[in-house]
Amino acid sequence: MARYARSGTSARRSVARQSVISNALPVVALGSVVLALIAIPVQSFGSVGDVLGAVAALAMLASSWGCLARHLGRTNAVWEAVAVAGLMVMGWVTFANMMAAALPGGMTGTNRLLLTALLPLGCILLRDPPFLFDPTKRPSRAALVTAMTCVSLGISALLFNVISERVWLRHDGPALFVSELPARTLVVANRTGGEARYRVLVEGATRRIDQTVTLQGWNEGTLNLEPLGPGGAVVQVFDLDESSSEPVLRLSLTSRTRGEAPTSAVTPSPSPSPSLSGG
Amino acid sequence: MVVADSTAPGGIGQSGAVLSGIELPQRWLGPQPIDREVDGPSARLVDPRMPRRSLVGTAAGFILVMASFVMARSGMPLASAVFWTGQTLAYISALALLVSAHVPDGFRVGVIMLVAAGQSMTAYAYRPVVFKFPDELQHWRTAQDLLTTKQLFTPSPTLPVSPQFPALEVVSTFLVETVHLPLFVAGALLVSLCHVILAICVYSFYDRVTESGLVSGLATLLFSTTPHAFTFNSLYVYGAMALPFFVMALRYALTDNGRAVSWRHVTAGLACVAMSVVTHPLTALISIGFLALLTPALLLLRAPGRIAVQCVVTSLGGATLAAAWVGLVARDAMTYLGPPILDVLTGLVSFGGASEETVRAAPPTSSTLERAIVAGSVPVVALLIAVGLWQVLRWRRPVPSAISLTALLYFAVLGVRVLDPRGAEMATRGLTYVVLFTGIPVAVGLLHLCGPRLGRLLPVAISTILVAGGLVSGWPAAWERLPGTVRIAGFESGVDGGNLALSQWARTAIGQDRRVACDMMTCSLIGGYSHQLPVEDAGDVYYAPTITPEVVQRVADLNIHFLVVNQLMSEQLPITGWYFGRDPLADQHARPVDQRVLAKFAADPRISLVYDDGQYQVYDMRGLWNG
User: What is the ipTM, given to two decimal places?
Assistant: First the structure.
């Protein structure tokens, strides 16, 4: 701190503030471990435990990172110390979590948190002087405003991308499918955004179902196939908002797909040919 | 583990006074003597507005690139122009700062971190909702298995080697389990962080070797513009996490404390190699290989024996760790790495003639200008390596000289590109590692050739050509550089709302681990998000005009439970040359598949059609062969 003694009151305050933050790191590290120990039994109570666990995990990572960076900063440039400390935290999380697989229950959140907590516990032992960012070289107000503007624009650009991608990924048009196999329920999905009216015609071996479905927005309508009786079925969907008499979608369900005994008798070769791919 | 770098002559960590022995900055800066006010941590900033202008320009460039993605999805015509304007602005602004003297190191590191963060943000903005690249989907599956089973090493059919190198998935699922982030967010955050840390590690490596912020900054930017650096190294792939450890392993092995072998640095280097070993097989192999390769170069250049010992011990220790890991856990690593390595060697030995691998010479998809930029950047790099190597050797400092000698591997990579059938992919992957060594001679050569009288204009212009060469030959490919277009089997552009919805439906409706035949990208989604077993060699079933007994037998042999028909197959030719992962007609498609051929499945009474959205149909094939 002495090296900034002549820099004035503001600089001295800045150094003092940095020291307080830096000295708080081991306290935060210890606090995160205590919080994790509280969160683990509370986790069974749902969201409160989840929030406590999340805060504990984040505090563990941040305080360990800070302590290690401060320690490495004695002999390295600040940015280098921060990067290497990040790698050390990543390495510890990797090996601690892999060791958690050997504990009863495997890699559960509790086991992972417990073994990861050894890192902040170890970091408490590190006693180092704080990082000192030169308080006489504080960024100007204009620089801060410029930086904040760039960050805001960057985040806005990301958010616009999220929105535009979500819109672009929406499949445009209806879809028709069985909700599970064997096929007992039919689903008509409206993926056009607005209101749509569909006529669903199901023709079974002995009976038929003819229904009109009106779907508002991004919704799904279901149709129970049980009343159709046994045997295969052909399903056709007509868009009542279009003039064409051709079905827009079509399914064909064999009796086997509907849950009845298989009839075919072709058997595969003893070993299927491989179909795996590498990356 | 505490790693302190003391300063002493010999290797990394020399004192600042040695700077005056480097001819390059003197030539670059004219008669002005080199001191810490010109080039170093506390260099005197002559124009205080210049760094700010540069940082703002770089940030604005990346924001423009992200804006171009929104425009492209909306079909706006100027999206491509905005994209290129943004890229140009971002990199030229960064270069303007990095080729300037009188800039403190902090600003150089700042702009390098900004470039890395910008690359990560644009990679995220390109696919901001779900992972789309096939490799990402393979790691997604491994991560999902980890979350479901709570155990390591659950076999994965989509990438068998992935669960055996689980570090990426272990850390990202830690964030999912404890912080309750969605896996996509946790994965994207993790690889972005790794990408920024990588940039700092690379700068740190160069700075320790050259002790020049000028050379280090420029070399790091050149490293950050290799073909894979723009997007691929920010994807959710295991290589992205392993790269910073690769760089730091080399840095620690080459660090000299001036007295004796530094066992602290050897331990730190070994820890980094150990992380590579559990993260990514190729990076681990290359770390060990490069350390072994550097040793004779160091001895040849009369480096202190302690540095060579550090390299040998780190390399041998790393090899032992890797052998133990492969022997005990990662048994698939040999079958994963072996064939491509043999292929490369066969291609090189036979001068490109004798590989059994199918040659997939995809049709040229980039413009003539782009191909000219790529072709033009190769001789430029070669010339700069030659000039830079000559200059660095004149410094008479063994470590930078050994690293610059290793840069000659660039020409081996060029050989692989030309002579190996899968050369484009292998060379691009190889460049990511080799460029760590070419960075110094290329930066030194560039600064030396341009000289002080030409100012900043020429180095910026030449660097822009190199950056453009990396950008146009990197990922995403030219046909999908901007999002918003759907192309069958076109990697990210092969993912649309239809097959995403289908993969979500398949996960719940047909159960898990069913064998599903599909086109390349649908198979990636089905394997990753639906947890099915993709069948990628069923092309002959699709191409058969009718369902004959032979086709039925083929379906039975492949154990196909379900088959997905993507109607785009009847509308588009595959941009990559193949519709399927293993397409029997790869690179032979003259026209799209006849729609009537695809309709044969609907006409067969033994086959059920269980999903139809107009573009994608899913057939239940089990009735055909008693599956």
Answer: 0.89
Q: How far is CA B403 from the centre of its chain?
A: 22
Q: pLDDT (tens digit, 9 = 90+) per residue, A56-99?
A: 999 999 999 999 998 998 888 889 999 999 999 999 999 999 99
The pTM of this model reads 0.90
User: Which DSSP category does B9 fall into?
Assistant: S
B381-413 CB burial, b ≥16 within 10 A, e <16? bbebbebbbebbeebebbbbbbbbbbbbbbeeb
Contacts of A7 (CB under 8 A, 6+ apart): A135, A136
Q: What is the dihedral of CA B84, B87, B90, B94, to 10 degrees?
A: -120
Sign, CA dihedral B477-B479-B484-B487, equals negative
Q: Which pLDDT does position B7 carry in this prediction?
A: 37
Contact A87 B174 (CB under 8 A): no
Phi, psi of A197 (to 5 degrees): -120, 130
Q: How many A-B residue pairs are in contact by the CB < 8 A criterion?
A: 308
Contact list in A for residue B161 (CB cut-off 8 A) is 278
Packing angle of the helix pair A109-116, A9-42 (nearest 10 deg): 140
Find the Cα–Cα–Cα–Cα dihedral B578, B580, B582, B583, rounded to 10°. -50
**3-state DSSP call for residue A74?**
coil
Please give the Cα distance from A222 to A190 (Å, whole number): 11
Nearest chain A residue (CA) to B129: A162
Residue A46 CA to residue B39 CA, distance in Å, equals 56
Q: Residue B560: which of B593, B538, B529 has the closest Cα?
A: B538
What are the residues facing A178 on neighbouring strands? A186
- Closest to B169 (Cα-Cα) out of B150, B146, B194: B146
- Number of helices (H), then strands (E), in chain B: 25, 5
Distance from CA of A95 to the nearest CA of B (A): 8
Amino acid at B612: D
* B chain contacts of residue A94, beta-carbon cutoff 8 Å: 167, 170-171, 275, 278-279
| Dist CA B297 CA B398 (whole Å) | 9
What's the CA gap between B235 and B231, in Å, rounded?
Answer: 7
CA distance B170 to A99: 11
Q: Which amino acid is at B524?
A: S
Q: How far is CA B487 from the centre of its chain?
A: 23
CA nearest to B596, candidates B540, B545, B552, B562: B545
Q: pLDDT category, A1, cuts 50, 70, 90?
A: very low
- Which chain B residues are closer than 8 Å to A82 by Cβ? 200
Q: How many CB atoms lie within 10 A of CB A136?
A: 11
CA distances from B288 to B187, B248, B273, B319, B456 (A): 27, 13, 8, 6, 38
H or E segment and range at residue A185: strand A185-189
Task: Please classify residue B37 by burial: count the beta carbons closer than 10 Å to its beta carbon, then call 0-12 exposed, 13-18 middle and 19+ buried.
Answer: middle
Q: Are the CB atoms for B348 and B415 separated by under 8 Å?
A: yes
Nearest residue of B to residue A271, measured between CA atoms: B557
B118: closest chain A residue by CA: A154
For residue B64, the chain A residue with the least C-alpha distance is A157
**CB of B10 within 8 A of CB of B398?**
yes
Q: Which residue has the higher pLDDT, B416 or B599?
A: B599
Q: What CA–CA distance (Å, rounded) separates A218 from A174? A: 10
Interchain CB distance below 8 Å, A154 and B63 = yes
The four Cα atoms B571, B577, B578, B581 give a dihedral, to 10 degrees, of -140
